[in-house]
Amino acid sequence: KEASTSAAATPIRRRRCMKCCGWTVSVVLLLAAACVVLFFSVFRVKDPIIRLNNVIVNRLDLLNTVTTPPPRRNITVVADVSVKNPNYGSFRYPITRTSIFYRGAVIGDARGPPGMSRSHETTRMNITVDVNVDRVMSQPDLGSDIGSGLMTMGSFTRVGGRMEVLVLKKPVTITLNCTVTINITSQGIEQQNCKQKVQI
């Protein structure tokens, strides 16, 4: 009787063991699938977005003078720049640099403050660039631009930093090239075109 009872219990144990193994494998597969989904959705590093919201030019009227502008009178360009972080992690950027161009020549350069954009946060900063008036006045096409009432300038902004998503840390560099046409009289923006490039 004991032998027959043991023989009858063996298939039951096998079925229980197979069920237990099946459940374990199912749980492992579900966890693996969840990890894959999280990796390709939540933990995947997305491109930060940099945007030039506005440009304010102060004392552009100095270019209307026939002679060289008085000393200690500078033209300044204030660039309102925002950095949007669409990731589930922080984006730290210790270096921010903006250059202003006119007719292909660099007329101003400035460094912005370091900063950090938290998860799904947009950080704004104002970068003030002092314009080298002598370089602007030396351009042969300045007179025609003043006569038209419009002045087209270019800006190049570079933000270098690091994206941190849990244990993942990736270097990220964002560049923004903009062409801005400014009304000399009103000092307002007539036209703006920007292109962003991200390197991860």
UniProtKB/TrEMBL annotation:
<dbReference type="GO" id="GO:0016020">
    <property type="term" value="C:membrane"/>
</dbReference>
<protein>
    <recommendedName>
        <fullName>Late embryogenesis abundant protein LEA-2 subgroup domain-containing protein</fullName>
    </recommendedName>
</protein>
<dbReference type="InterPro" id="IPR044839">
    <property type="entry name" value="NDR1-like"/>
</dbReference>
<dbReference type="Pfam" id="PF03168">
    <property type="entry name" value="LEA_2"/>
</dbReference>
<keyword id="KW-0812">Transmembrane</keyword>
<feature type="domain" description="Late embryogenesis abundant protein LEA-2 subgroup">
    <location>
        <begin position="81"/>
        <end position="178"/>
    </location>
</feature>
<keyword id="KW-1133">Transmembrane helix</keyword>
<dbReference type="InterPro" id="IPR004864">
    <property type="entry name" value="LEA_2"/>
</dbReference>
<feature type="transmembrane region" description="Helical">
    <location>
        <begin position="21"/>
        <end position="43"/>
    </location>
</feature>
<dbReference type="GO" id="GO:0098542">
    <property type="term" value="P:defense response to other organism"/>
</dbReference>
<keyword id="KW-0472">Membrane</keyword>
